[in-house]
Design brief:
- There is one protein chain.
- By secondary structure, this protein is α+β, with helices and mostly antiparallel strands.
- It has one domain.
- It is built from eight helices and three strands.
- A three-stranded antiparallel beta sheet has the order 2-1-3, with helices on both faces.
- A hairpin with a 3-residue loop joins strand 1 and strand 2.
- The model has no long low-confidence stretch (mean pLDDT 89).
Amino acid sequence: MIYNSETHAVLIEWEMDCVGSYKSISIGDNAFSLFQDIKNHIISSMRNLIDQHYEAINCSDLDSFYADFVDENEPMPEGYSAFDIEKLFLILLDKHSSYLAKNPTEPTIKGEWSRLIEYINDDLEGDYLDISIEGKIPIFAKEMISWLKSYKEENNVLNFTEGRWINYLQAITKAEQWWLDDNTRNLSQFIDEFNRMYEFS
């Protein structure tokens, strides 16, 4: 792809006990194109989580979900369940997609749907879907450096590849027009290597 000052990236983390996990970086020309690229990915992951934890979600405070995301002035309909949470999630995704279509350079791809993800994650006993980092490339690169360092603090020291990734990312944060030089090649290499290292397992 051709990089520019509006190029966005996102880090998605997903984990489900006894199923597997992955971490994946996606990139797009702007916030809207990136959102379109990852939307189906998010929907699929969230459906898996809801299906796996149907009973836990039904036992949670669904009144709070309804008040926060539908209507705080109306009582929750009788029989409201995890299936309705999934429908609500899809509606919020569509609303945010429509908003970004009209504002493609919006600095964030997140909206109310990300708050819904956080609410649902609280009910899932350690399984989760998280949009960990997102934003224009220089912002993403800076936060990704911190993520790599903190992630390895919990496990072990950085290896040679991860150290090289940090060097690539640091160069991007320091370049005013990072998309005009070798940083674009290094960024593509970093994303490819990262996604292979953390692919679904």
